[in-house]
Specification:
single chain; about 140 residues; alpha/beta; Collagenase (Catalytic Domain); 4-stranded mixed beta sheet; 5 helices; about 45% helix; globular
Length: about 140
């Protein structure tokens, strides 16, 4: 059975509209490399919205580069639709200010949707190893 993936990208800041196709393409490639099927929603937001989300969900009153919200397991969906993997919020203002690689941040967010985490040291090591493998396969610098 062929694995299917779908990516929706919603740009909430007009200056980033030209990045939409590239983000979708990168996300699809990451999902393919991870052998993940399902639907991912990506929201490109600015510092103010990210700060609000980070404060509400992580109790941190500051913007950040990426937040991921995996779809709860066992959530009912119509049988013939792609299973949602979750949502990723990217703050391109923050990412550019910190001179980070947006595709790396996107990969980090998708890994969270795939079940990877970095709260415990062992989990952090696994996630960082997987990130480096993805970056190499995508020809991104370490």
């Amino acid at each position: 059975m062929k694995r299917e993936a779908s990516v929706g990208v919603l740009i909430l800041d007009k200056k980033y509209l030209p990045r939409e196709a590239g983000l979708r393409k990168a996300a699809l490639k990451i999902l393919r490399l991870l052998k993940k099927s399902g639907r991912v929603e990506i929201y490109v937001i600015g510092d103010l919205r990210m700060r609000r989300l980070n404060k509400k969900f992580r109790k941190l009153d500051r913007p950040t580069n990426v937040l991921s919200f995996p779809e709860p397991s066992g959530f009912p969906h119509p049988p013939k639709t792609l299973r949602p993997l979750g949502e990723i919020y990217l703050d391109l203002d923050y990412i550019e200010k910190k001179e980070e690689n947006v595709v790396k941040m996107l990969a980090h967010g998708i890994l969270h949707l795939a079940g990877y985490d970095h709260k415990k040291i062992g989990d952090r090591i696994k996630m960082e190893k997987k990130e480096k493998i993805l970056w190499r396969k995508m020809s991104l610098p370490d």
